[in-house]
Design goal:
heterodimer; A: 168 residues; mainly alpha; serine acetyltransferase, domain 1; 60% helix; elongated; B: 445 residues; alpha/beta; Alkaline Phosphatase, subunit A; 10 helices
Chain lengths: 168, 445
């Protein structure tokens, strides 16, 4: 046996032993206990769909007048809605025209001042189809209690021209 | 070379390069126009008005003047001028030429033989082709925005680095139907964010329009502030779900105030304006002229850099050829009135190019209908004649050749978008492959 063959033999042996050891090692299962991540959101706040012009107009009419929109009025409003590119401008004008109508059925200012909680909850249920969360209730109640210039018209206008009102 | 002098030169070089780089970085942000980024090309003018003389007009009745000169304010007489025929408007009922003795074609270049070369010769196809610079096919969806970017989007995205106000860009349509959807496309990277402001005046500024949006509740300034505060709070809670462009073109808050003021001014003008649409008797004025009236109001109010309007009353040719001819007379007068208005308006005069083009022609052969004067009616069903159109380009003499006429075949309807892009200096910024047409450079001085 020459020196080269001797080295080769003694180098290969540990390597083979190493592979055998690794190959025969028992896999220890490791268990990790945790909670799956869950997206938490308030019921009714997920609104992924944009309202069509018909939906926007019909819902806004019902929210303000408390009754279904007559077909002729819906057709007229749809025509106006389609005749101007920036629907934000058109929607703003439509809502303010509704609010300027004597038949607009909004709670009066006295009720709002005396029952701010109830007013805010009812407004959210009517406009956003959900109850306000604690922050929303506190914020609007605070606005009502601390600013005498705030009227039901202002609040309904703000809610009905907000981005959430565009979607459902 | 001395080592020290080499070091000095190297330092100076680095310093100069640094300053140049800083200059290149900063310069686009401080443009006098207020734009964030400069467009690549040189503008020829600052305003372009594109009048789609649409509805389907045959070259036979326009530039060839087979029924006499029905477009006598725009075109020079080929032979005998206007010929009063049974059923045609009487000469005394046609208002005077707004340009006096001059004809509109004296103010620019007339291409007599332009082609709508491909795709169905339908009105919506023709409009899309003219506004996107791309031909369409028969699978066109009438309920959707165009598949490819409109000239409005190219303009707002590339002429202003995406910062161009939508008030600079208007689409004024004569009718509803699918036409409101032409102010922006569904093409990725373009879309509503770069769309044009849109108005269909005869629907909005109407009795119904006034009843529905003309009498809004007005809040005090204090109430407005409170409403904005509450709205801001609500929007802040809904940011993750809301995509503004999903509801179409969006102007910022101050622009929306200007738009509401504009609408109110138009209502006031229509109700009590002393000069409201006093362009002639009830028999003379029609919806095309009303659309031109409101295009002029828009130009006057906003001085937009790009405005496109359409006229389509001539489409009555499907059933009444005589009315088609009369509406062509009205459209001709209206287009000349529009040009005269532009030249009379400071800020627009001598700085505006106006392009006039039908979206397509009409068939060579009539359909089966005959009108009260015994004249047969014509449809537009993609025969060769319905692909023949003309184009007129008007502008300052240092930009557009004056009194120039090209009688041979030249240009296509897909060439208008590249021409507008070239005139407003952003053609080089449009990504390669988006447009296959060419600028109508034969019109350039």
């Amino acid at each position: 046996m020459n020196m080269w063959e001797f080295n080769k033999k003694y180098l290969l042996l540990p390597l083979i032993l190493l592979f055998v050891t690794i190959g025969c090692k028992r896999e220890e299962k490791q268990y990790v206990y945790s909670v799956n991540s869950v997206d938490v959101s308030q019921a009714g706040t997920e609104k992924p769909y944009v309202k069509t012009s018909s939906e926007y107009i019909s819902i806004a009419y019902t929210d303000i007048f408390g009754e279904n929109i007559p077909n002729k009025k819906l057709e007229e409003l749809k025509m106006v809605y389609k005749s101007f590119g920036d629907v934000g401008v058109t929607e703003d004008l439509i809502i303010r025209n509704f609010l300027n109508d004597e038949a607009a059925d909004l709670p009066d200012e006295t009720f709002m001042q005396e029952n701010p909680d109830e007013f805010v909850i009812e407004a959210y249920k009517k406009v956003f189809n959900r109850v306000p969360n604690e922050l929303e209730l506190w914020y609007l109640k605070d606005c009502i209690e601390n600013d005498s210039a705030l009227t039901p018209h202002v609040i309904y206008y703000a809610l009905m021209t907000s981005n959430e009102y565009r979607q459902f | 070379m001395n080592i020290d002098s080499f070091k000095m030169k190297r330092r100076e070089f680095i310093k100069k390069i640094g300053l140049s780089a800083a200059g290149v970085t900063v310069a686009p942000y401080i443009l006098p126009s207020g734009r964030l980024f400069a467009q690549t090309g040189q503008r020829k003018v600052n305003h372009v008005v594109f009048c789609l003389l649409a509805g389907g007009i045959r070259n036979d009745e326009s530039v060839k003047q087979n029924e006499g000169n029905l477009m006598s304010t725009m075109l020079k007489d080929v032979s005998g001028g206007y010929v009063e025929q049974p059923g045609f408007l009487q000469r005394e009922n046609i208002p005077d030429n707004p340009l006096g003795l001059q004809r509109l074609q004296d103010n620019g270049t007339l291409f007599k033989e332009v082609r709508f070369a491909e795709g169905p010769t339908g009105h919506y196809n023709g409009h899309i082709t003219a506004l996107t610079g791309r031909y369409t096919n028969a699978t066109l969806n009438l309920r959707a925005n165009p598949d490819y970017p409109t000239v409005f989007e190219y303009y707002r995205k590339h002429a202003g680095g995406g910062e161009m106000s939508a008030l600079n860009c208007w689409w004024i349509s004569d009718s509803l139907g699918p036409y409101p959807a032409l102010n922006y496309s569904s093409y990725p990277g373009y879309g509503a964010l770069y769309g044009a402001n849109y108005i269909q005046p005869s629907s909005l500024i109407s009795v119904d329009g006034y009843n529905e949006v003309g009498n809004p509740f007005y809040f005090t300034e204090k109430e407005k502030d409170l409403a904005n505060k509450i709205k801001g709070f609500c929007d802040g809670n809904f940011t993750s779900q809301y995509a503004a462009e999903s509801v179409g073109i969006v102007n910022n808050k101050s622009e929306r105030v200007q738009l509401e003021t504009f609408i109110n001014e138009l209502f006031t003008d229509a109700i009590s304006g002393p000069g409201y649409f006093n362009w002639g008797s009830g028999d003379w004025v029609n919806n095309d002229l009303l659309n031109i009236y409101y295009a002029e109001k828009t130009l006057e109010k906003f001085e937009p850099e790009l405005l496109v309007l359409n006229l389509q009353a001539v489409d009555i040719c499907h059933s009444e050829f005589t009315s088609y001819c009369n509406n062509l007379i009205r459209a001709d007068w209206g287009v000349t009135h529009l040009w005269n208005f532009i030249q009379s308006t400071p800020g627009l005069a001598n700085d505006t190019v106006m392009i006039v083009m039908p979206e397509h022609g009409r068939n060579a052969d009539p359909n089966t209908l005959v009108d009260a004067y015994g004249r047969p009616a014509y449809d537009h069903t993609s025969d060769e004649r319905s692909r023949e159109i003309f184009t007129m380009i008007l502008g300052p003499s240092n930009v557009i050749k004056q009194g120039h006429v090209v009688s041979s075949e030249y240009g296509e309807s897909i060439d208008v978008v590249p021409t507008i892009a070239n005139l407003l200096g952003f053609d080089a910024d449009i990504p390669l492959g988006m447009l296959s047409g060419n600028s109508l450079t034969d019109a350039y001085a």
